[in-house]
UniProtKB/TrEMBL annotation, chain A:
High-level lineage: Bacteria, Bacillati, Actinomycetota, Actinomycetes, Micrococcales
GO molecular function, one term: aspartate carbamoyltransferase activity
Family of this protein: Belongs to the aspartate/ornithine carbamoyltransferase superfamily. ATCase family.
Residues binding L-aspartate, per UniProt: K82, R186, R241
Ranges of residues in domain Aspartate/ornithine carbamoyltransferase carbamoyl-P binding: 2-146
Gene: pyrB
Catalytic activity: carbamoyl phosphate + L-aspartate = N-carbamoyl-L-aspartate + phosphate + H(+)
Protein name: Aspartate carbamoyltransferase
Pfam families: OTCace, OTCace_N
Length: 340, 192
């Protein structure tokens, strides 16, 4: 894997390999000594043009657990605020010898430009660009779903470390509902593509105003009625954050009022009770409690929101390993015993 | 075992299933002898082929000392993330590391690998063990020692010393993975 820019670039085999690598990384994170020497001497730059707490901290933790040197760069307080272009920033990082660049940018496509414009030799990992893609979030969601649900219907599994549950499997046959502000959500976009690649059936649920143009070409079904979708007993329900910073005041005309949104599309106590026994509740965070998700749902035993965060570190360790550890662009090969 | 001179790239079988079985039985006895029993012994197999060898050693230990339970003696130690040559090869898939239920603190860890060559795998294994716990002692068992060490590492238990030239390739085949038990030497291009 040379770069990770887009969830669509991953084949089913690629995605399963990332998830399996993440499972081994997760297993190392329950040890007393969590640090591995794998990326010693490599430099990872976190290039964040947009505010983020959990994604940046997650990438920083992942890189440090693999012994890479981490440089955090945020647009605020840097020369970007003086008007420096992406190209000049990239050339600066290249001159400093960055091996990997984790980029979040408000413009869709910025990571692609950085990876392919020839400015840098570093591996580029997309940590969210505009309303376009957030592939590591989709991978961590897929990892979380697999860990909880991939054993369903398969007899005799569930042995060994919890972190390794579902290794080697995809998500074939699982139903996932993604609910909320799909229009502004790169998480939804990446998840639809990745979860479908892995064999899951995805249903998007949103008010018509928050469904993007062209959704008909996405490999998923679209529903405007949350109760009808929940009646189909999805295995996982992913609530999306209502991105009010991307709307104008009071919902910006996307919905009449927060209360109405919450009544129609919020995961409240009544809807919580209708979920299947095994179903898990997910949220990419940060949560608007009381808007898209009620406190009861967020704190329910079946809510895996906090586990998503720790799985995020393991998945990002896997992505950094797969993009940075090897000798170049070649695909991974089966272990050969040449240095016995 | 063929006595006639072999052409280039010919495969010579140097150990067959009976010899491998005898070597493992002898190593099992040596492990018990050296450690005055098997009470604190933990066998860590290095994937891929060290692991089935570790399981076989554990069965032999348990056969000699009935107090031992073969299933609880063996762990699996993947050293991929500790290798010193990751940048020189395409990305390697990461294997599984599992320890016996009691861990390795205070135990005598016997590393089990198929071929001992440069010693770099064992160096990586020692680093990996350091992050997993603090064993009382670490010993090394290998089915084949082919020489050409690049580090000050020596085995404690050896199935067979096999003097080789650097251009030859040594392969260990095990029933569990390859369907047959054998140690073979292939003449080939010189290693860089």
């Amino acid at each position: 894997m040379r770069h990770l820019l887009d969830a669509r670039d991953l084949t089913r085999a690629d995605a399963v390999q990332v998830l399996d690598t993440a499972a081994e990384m997760a297993a190392t994170q329950s040890r007393e000594i969590k640090k591995l020497p794998t990326l010693r001497g490599r430099t990872v730059v976190n290039l964040f043009f947009e505010d983020s707490t959990r994604t940046r901290i997650s990438f920083e933790t992942a890189a440090k657990r693999l012994s890479a040197d981490v440089i955090n760069f945020s647009a605020k307080g840097s020369s970007v605020s003086k008007g420096e272009s992406l190209k000049d920033t990239a050339l600066t990082l290249q001159a400093m010898g960055a091996d990997g660049i984790v980029i979040r940018h408000h413009a869709s496509g910025a990571p692609h430009l950085l990876a392919h414009a020839g400015w840098v030799d570093a591996a580029v990992v997309n940590a969210g660009d505009g309303t376009h893609q957030h592939p590591t979030q989709a991978l961590l969601d897929a990892f979380t779903i697999r860990r909880h649900l991939a054993d369903r219907g398969v007899a005799g599994s569930g042995e060994g470390f919890d972190a390794r549950r579902g290794v080697g499997k995809d998500l074939a046959g699982l139903k996932v509902a993604i609910v909320g502000d799909v229009l502004h959500s790169r998480v939804a976009r990446s998840n639809v593509q990745l979860l479908t690649t892995l064999g899951a059936e995805v249903t998007l649920v949103a008010p018509p105003t928050l469904v993007p143009v062209g959704v008909g070409t996405w490999p998923c079904t679209v529903s405007y009625d949350l109760d009808a979708t929940l009646a189909e007993r999805p295995d996982a329900v992913m609530m999306l954050r209502v991105q009010r910073e991307r709307m104008s005041a009071a919902g910006g005309g996307y919905f009449p009022s927060p209360l109405e949104y919450s009544r129609l599309y919020g995961l409240d106590q009544r809807r919580l009770a209708t979920l299947a026994e095994h179903a898990v509740i997910m949220h990419p965070g940060p949560m608007n409690r009381g808007l898209e998700i009620s406190a009861q749902a967020a704190d329910a035993a079946r809510s895996v929101v906090v586990e998503q965060v720790s799985n995020g570190v393991a998945v990002r360790m896997a992505v950094l390993y797969l993009t940075l550890a090897g000798s170049g662009t070649a695909a991974p090969v089966p272990t050969s015993k040449e240095l016995a | 075992m063929a006595g006639a001179p072999m052409p280039e790239d010919a495969v010579t079988t140097v150990l067959g299933a009976p010899e491998i079985g005898r070597a493992l039985t002898r190593i099992a006895h040596e492990i018990l002898e050296r450690n005055k029993g098997g009470d604190d012994v933990v066998l860590l197999g290095i994937p891929t082929r060290g692991l089935p060898l570790a399981h076989r050693l554990a069965e032999r230990l348990a056969a000699v000392e009935p107090s031992l339970d073969a299933a609880h003696l063996v762990g699996e130690l993947d050293i991929t993330m500790y290798r010193d040559d990751l940048h020189r090869h395409p990305t390697r898939p990461i294997g599984t590391t599992t320890l016996p239920a009691d861990g390795i603190d205070g135990k005598v860890v016997v590393l089990v690998d198929d071929v001992l060559f440069s010693g770099r795998t064992i160096r990586a294994a020692l680093d990996a063990i350091k992050d997993l716990g603090r064993p009382r002692a670490v010993q090394l068992a290998t089915l084949v020692d082919r020489g050409h060490r690049e580090l000050p590492i020596r085995p404690d238990f050896v199935g067979k010393n096999l003097p080789t030239s650097l251009s030859e390739r040594v392969a260990v085949l095990v029933e569990e993975i390859d369907g047959t038990d054998a140690v073979t030497i292939t003449a080939g291009e010189a290693r860089a």
